[in-house]
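Tokens for chain A. Residues wanted.
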């Protein structure tokens, strides 16, 4: 999983087009990528503020790329590849910063298997007294059903994945060493905004988040979803 950030001088359309064309072509030309990439999906951050709460600093990321490899060894090889490192640094006027995370996808529910127009991403760092294992266990076993309760959700989310950063994977910059976060799909933008605009539901959710999350370090945004590559159809 790769988060990208763009400078304020780059338009959303220019980032979208460059990321899918020039960037992905160069990425796929790396031998380790071409040999082991299974699927690639790009998510483009939509210009809407969600969960605007005092104390939460929402980093201005432009997109999230989910790249599926056939093994962890292959993914690690790509991260260490000099061609990949050069690619990340080669176009700062469009992609000014990146964050790579190795994650496991944990499916929580999938109530609607149709193509859905909008999803929410978030990324969190755990409270310092918790290990990553403890935080992710709470996230999956307690927080997920809590967030899906009638008091909060009321059926507004129809598909939900938790991304768990691998227990032994740590970003070298502690400010970017996230532990996990959700992908949550909605049937419409109106439904998404109805959930995030529900002040009571968000207060209840925040109360439980505070038991395992450093809430001041949360980042979150709404995105679309575009399939860029699928080896099954190539």
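Reply:
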């Amino acid at each position: 999983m790769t988060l990208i950030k763009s400078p304020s001088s780059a338009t959303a359309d220019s980032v979208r087009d460059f990321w899918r064309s020039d960037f992905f072509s160069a990425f796929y030309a790396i031998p380790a990528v071409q040999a082991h990439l299974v699927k690639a999906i790009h998510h483009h951050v939509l210009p809407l503020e969600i969960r605007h709460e005092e104390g939460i600093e929402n980093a201005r990321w432009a997109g999230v790329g989910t790249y599926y490899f056939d093994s962890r060894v292959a993914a690690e090889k790509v991260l260490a590849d000099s061609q990949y490192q050069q690619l990340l640094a080669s176009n700062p006027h469009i992609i000014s910063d990146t964050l790579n995370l190795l994650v496991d996808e944990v499916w929580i529910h999938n109530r609607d298997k149709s193509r859905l127009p909008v999803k929410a991403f978030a990324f969190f760092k755990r409270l310092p007294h918790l290990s990553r294992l403890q935080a992710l266990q709470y996230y999956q076993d307690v927080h997920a059903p809590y967030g899906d309760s009638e008091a909060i959700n009321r059926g507004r989310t129809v598909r939900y994945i938790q991304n768990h950063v691998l227990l032994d994977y740590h970003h070298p910059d502690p400010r970017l060493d996230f532990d996990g976060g959700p992908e949550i799909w909605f049937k419409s933008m109106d439904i998404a905004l109805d959930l995030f605009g529900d002040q009571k539901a968000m207060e209840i959710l925040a109360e439980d988040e505070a038991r395992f999350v450093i809430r001041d370090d949360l980042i979150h945004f709404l995105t679309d979803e575009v399939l860029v590559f699928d080896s099954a159809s190539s």
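Helices lie at 12-29, 31-36, 72-80, 82-89, 132-147, 189-196, 199-209. The chain has a mean pLDDT of 93.
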